[in-house]
Design goal:
By secondary structure, the protein is an alpha+beta fold. It has 2 domains: 59 residues; 254 residues, Cysteine proteinases (Cathepsin B, Chain A), CATH 3.90.70.10. The protein has 13 helices and 7 strands. Strands 1, 2, 3, 4, 5, 6 and 7 form a 7-stranded antiparallel sheet that branches. The protein is globular.
Length: 372
């Protein structure tokens, strides 16, 4: 059988001989490859109980000989132990976007055909950073990526900024035991205009998060006091956001601004991997779409740098982000064959980057921050 990837869900179902119940599942989540289907089944062990007639165990076994070698190797690797670094608003009512550009426009992006790419060839002079899985510093890394992008030069790169320094400044103003607990973009919005952020050369990100920065680093940071609008959208485990968060992010990208976001990570109760640390996600950079019964496990932060129209997502496209897990994320970036017209799947630009569906972001993003 030919390699089964980058296929419309109905064709994938025919190739695999799925029954009507399994077909509806594949179409609901717009599954386009054997690897992705296998990943979704593994991430939802209760699927057979939840959908009568779904041949869970039989289908899972039947897919194994069809898996790609790269995905099979990813499955064999131990799951990473993550300290999630984005604190999320306690469960409660979700909030409207307010007066942000795009908030009064239709939320559906299916009519959007423009690719927005703020990264371009600059990735070659801007190495992806690595926060280390054990440090709760993803929010500062997402923010410093947004700021570093503003000074990117195709010939000389950019000035690396101190993400761990920014984390420590946040912890000083919003105390918990240093090195423990994540942070929020709203905390960055309070700290960055006062404390600033230093060059990473003066306070290395390899420093322990419990170590106090030097006076030179503190003084240098005062030359980079920055501010920008930040929206906290809240989180309600029983409901999606009021729509239009994806539209707001898209409009910021159109204005040439990277967007730092925080978003929950999800998993079925008892499963060891989240939709961000699943073997399929770590391999391809494609974040798995949440299933209704998956529960919030933690929160993560990334820097959004682009948008790609694609028919696979119900809302019409994918946002391209820069992660902070170094080369351990998107080890084999998803790169479907080029087609005429709107593609089925998104393209992950390089190792360390990823894509998240506009529908997923629209439903669950918790904070948005930009720097004019």
């Amino acid at each position: 059988m030919a390699e089964l990837r980058n296929l419309p869900p109905d064709r994938l179902a025919r190739e695999l001989g799925l029954n009507d119940i399994e077909l509806r599942y594949v179409e609901e989540f717009r599954v386009t490859s054997v690897d992705e289907l296998h990943a979704r089944l593994r991430a939802s062990p209760s699927l057979g109980e939840r959908r009568q007639g779904f041949r869970y165990a039989e289908l899972l076994r039947g897919l194994e000989p069809l898996l790609s070698p790269a995905y099979s190797r990813a499955l064999a690797a131990p799951p990473p132990e993550i300290v999630w670094g984005a604190n999320l608003t306690p469960p409660g009512e979700t909030l409207a976007i307010g007066n942000w550009p795009g908030a009064n426009q239709p939320p559906d992006l299916n009519g959007e055909n423009e690719v927005i790419d703020l990264l371009g060839g600059l990735k070659d002079v801007w190495p992806v950073r690595d926060q280390r899985f054990t440090e709760p510093t993803c929010v500062p890394y997402a923010v410093t990526a947004s700021l570093e992008w503003q000074t990117l030069n195709p010939a000389t790169g950019t000035t690396r900024l101190g993400s761990v320094f920014l984390y420590q400044r946040i912890r000083n103003q919003f105390p918990v035991p240093m090195g423990q607990g994540g942070t929020k973009l709203t905390e960055v919005a309070a700290v960055l205009p006062v404390s600033g952020v230093c060059r990473e050369a003066l306070w290395s990100d390899n420093n322990n998060t419990t170590t106090v920065p030097t006076a030179a680093a503190v003084q240098d940071a005062l030359t980079r006091q920055r501010s920008g609008p930040c929206a906290d959208l809240g989180y309600n485990p029983a409901a999606r956001h009021p729509p239009r968060a994806a539209r707001v992010v898209l409009e910021q990208l159109r204005q040439g601004r990277p967007v730092a976001i925080t978003i929950p990570t999800f998993a079925e109760q008892g499963f060891t991997r989240t939709n961000w640390t699943d073997a399929f996600t770590l391999l391809t950079g494609c974040v798995l779409k949440k299933e209704a019964h998956w529960q919030r496990v933690g929160g993560h932060a990334v820097c959004i740098l682009g948008f790609q129209p694609a028919t696979k997502d119900p809302l019409g496209g994918y946002f391209v982000f820069r992660n902070s897990w170094g080369g351990r994320f998107a080890e084999q970036p998803n790169k479907p064959a080029q087609v005429a017209g709107k593609p089925l799947e998104p393209t992950v630009p390089d190792v360390g980057y990823g894509v998240i569906g506009a529908d997923e972001l629209d439903a669950y993003v918790t904070e948005i921050m930009v720097f004019p």
